[in-house]
Amino acid sequence: AGKVVVEPVQRAELIKTGIQACNDDEDAEVVVHDKTFREVVNLVEWPSVAMGRFDEEFLEVPRDVLETAMESHQRYFPVQDADANLVAAFVVVHNGDPAHTAEIVAGHERVLRARLADAAFFYREDTARPLEEFVPMLEDIVFQERLGTVAARVERIETLAGDLCSQMGAGPDVAAWSERAAHLCKADLVTSMVVEFPTLQGVMGRHYALAAGEARQVAGAIEEHYLPRHAGDEIPVSEAGAVVSIADKLDSIVGIFAIGMAPTGSADPYALRRSALGILRIIIERDLRVALDDAIAAALEGYEGVVEGLQKQDVGRAVKGFVLGRMETVLKDRGHAYDTVEAILASSGDDPADAVRRAEALTAVRRRKAIADLSVAFTRAKNLSKPELGVETDASLMGDEERALLEAMGSAETEVADAMAAADYPRVLELLGGLRAPIDVFFEEVLVMDEDETLKENRLKLLNRFVALFSQYADFSALAD
Fold first, then answer.
1. How much is the pLDDT for 204?
2. By 3-state DSSP, what share of the chain in percent is helix, strand and coil, each rounded to 5?
3. What pTM was computed for the model?
4. Average pLDDT value over all residues in the chain
5. Exposure of 172 by Cβ count < 10 A (0-12 exposed, 13-18 middle, 19+ buried)?
């Protein structure tokens, strides 16, 4: 009686039915994004669905702009044809009396026409000059009061992108695209379109770069460098996009840590945790060989002379610990036990993609209940080892059991080295597990802590060598079983 459909589910069904009717009547497809749909369901109480029109001349404006104007500002649904091309129509859900739908739609058309006229004007104004000309204007935007302007930040990102390409062994084309994209990646922030529609940052950078004749790879990387924006979001599909995204995020993390504003508790105003997780997702899912120590050191170079009294080593350690904290989360979310994560990160945390492969192989061994050959053998040896003595042994001082262990290790070391180089981690674990028998015999038959200091040290050196071989893969003493 009050013209209110109380239940959200019922309102949603009424809207879906109305949208389907528009599809059938117009032989078109209404583009329905979940976020907009959920908002609309909760903005109306007695929904009616109708289709409106706008001038076709506005279709010259990029689709991203039209959809943003319709959805983000007006909560309209765009419409596309059978070939997925946007058409000059929109769907509106309103609360008005269905008997007056024509007048209601006409009012919405006037509102949208004004919105699209503004967007078309901004687009023409922005494309009247190349994207490069917007870069100097970034001097007027402060990134962080103690870290300078966005223009200075862009210079750091550009340099860091080049360093990352060198570290990753990227080809000259990828390096050139990455550095050019980094140079232009924030330029659209000062365009009229992005000032009016902030959610289009990056998107308009791509459009404007293409309009200015930049390479397709450069334009794509400009948009992709914001990815992933949130958990579950897609990552960059291009190598250049991945490089610039990592450089952008790492620059933020290092800069904020350098001025002592690292996240504390639930406070993370610069979303550094999200940035760190984004970096790790890109590295892992694209299987990039990025050494965290080298990447962080390169990022810190950009803040030399920017942050007064910069303690690069201290900041570098703090940033590395912060990123590894997120790496623990990533590995645990992938189903690896806490002690597997600890064991792997103790030896290979500097290479995130490699750490994932090692964790997967170790977890597989643990699931087969075959871990004892690794953890028991390693732990017994590590408990007695004395790393300061080194690993150079004298075979002439050895008995049969010691020589048997030495020969087994010599053979295993060669094969382990080959398997490690090939990242064949199941094979590495198989080879290490094969040393359980000779190390058990060694401990049963040999008194390591002999009264003869020469014999004792020689045996400890043998154990050091054994531990060093295992430690190339993980710290097996961290395993609970």
1. 97
2. 65, 5, 30
3. 0.89
4. 94
5. exposed
